[in-house]
Amino acid sequence: MSELDPLIKENRTALATVAIKREDKAPLSGAEVVIAQKKHKFLFGGSGFFLIPLVNNEVTGKDKEKLEEISEKFFALFNYVTLPFYWGRFERQRGRPDTERLLKTAKWCVEHGIAVKGHPLCWHTVTAPWLLELSNEEILAAQVERIKREVADFAGLIDIWDVVNEAVIMPVFAKYDNGITRICKEMGRIKLIRTMFEAARSVNPNAVLVLNDYIVSFPFDVLIEGALEAGVKIDVIGIQSHMHQGYWGVEKTQWILSLYERYNLPIHFTETTIVSGRLMPPEIEDLNDYQVKNWPTTRRGEKRQALETVLHYKTLLAHPLVTGITWWSFLDGLWLRAPGGLLRKDLSVKPAYEELLRLIKGEWWLKPTRFVTDENGKLAFRGFLGEYELSYAGKKIPFALKDKGKTTIEISL
User: Fold this and answer.
1) Which residues contact 325 (CB under 8 A, 6 or more apart)?
2) Residue 167 and residue 192 in contact, taking contact as beta carbons nearer than 8 Å
3) For labelling, which of 18, 115, 293, 363 has a CA lying 20 to 30 Å from the CA of 195?
4) CA distances (Å), 299 to each of 158, 296, 352, 356, in order?
């Protein structure tokens, strides 16, 4: 047992007393029941771009079989998926957004009990090139209209959004001209953030809105402070953790988390990468600048990845403000050709996948377990927060452990 395990137990589990009554309201005493966990409250997720062609029946034969295998292994592990809304790909031609394909994919996920996040709504990279034909005033209007359209169209299917992505660098981004950098330079970061968050909130007041960045300390922490003081309602702080140049370690991860504790807001680790091959050279400032033809996974690297992945997930679960982790990407080679997947290119699982499965669906999961109620019709168990099902005499009754600590669940048959 690591020193993180007691904190995980404290922050992620409940000691539940389940009181069961018969139809006549008498206690169900001395009865054998089965309790099984059905879903975690914590969001364990990954980027699921591969789902779009699969759900929309755009592949056949071996290509379809490959995506089906990826999907099966993905959802054996995760309960949460991020779908892509990069404006430059979602609406290549103005007025012709790729809404139907994404709607069908999001609906499929929800029908299978998977929570969905859209990423991103406002970003200066992979944004619509046709914005450059517009004035700044028109760009702003188009961006606001775009946010309202997507958030409204997907309400009830996608209610979690990375609203503004990488605002720290947005107004000073100089690699190429783009419409979003233009308006951010004119408006300033905080005004832009407020405008975009208000647009999203206006059409879906119940949406969970995320401010996401890869700059994980100063000045992102100060930007959040300024946005909150300006009245922006940020629901979740999004932290990218692309560790292509090496695992952060427990101490650095905890230090980063400590920067945001004063805001008492939920934190999502929105883009987590730990590679299983050689590390990217430390002098590379922009990860996108590291271009290689081949970046293989290695046996030694996979052992290291597995150990670091377990430690990283345990460190995050031990902190009470962290409510979600998204792995980026699920399959080797999908981003920067990096061996950052939990699956190899041949779709075989790496040790890191096996370790996460052992934790998420093993150590942190209640498999079907038999209990016998006492004379008062009660039983007690400790479980991770989430959804459960009690089975007795052919009946299946759902219930949930919502809050950590001690709780009482009353069930009437």
Assistant:
1) 42, 43, 44, 45, 268, 269, 272, 313, 316
2) yes
3) 115
4) 38, 10, 12, 18
Query: Residue-wise pLDDT tens for the chain (413 aa)?
Result: 689 999 999 999 999 999 999 999 999 999 999 999 999 999 999 999 999 999 999 999 999 999 999 999 999 999 999 999 999 999 999 999 999 999 999 999 999 999 999 999 999 999 999 999 999 999 999 999 999 999 999 999 999 999 999 999 999 999 999 999 999 999 999 999 999 999 999 999 999 999 999 999 999 999 999 999 999 999 999 999 999 999 999 999 999 999 999 999 999 999 999 999 999 999 999 999 998 999 999 999 999 999 999 999 999 999 999 999 999 999 999 999 999 999 999 999 999 999 999 999 999 999 999 999 999 999 999 999 999 999 999 999 999 999 999 999 999 99
**3-state secondary structure (DSSP) of residue 216:** coil
Residues 47-72 as b or e (16 or more Cβ within 10 Å = b): bbbbbbebbeeeeeeeeeebbeebbe
Give the whole-angstrom CA distance, residue 67 versus residue 158.
22
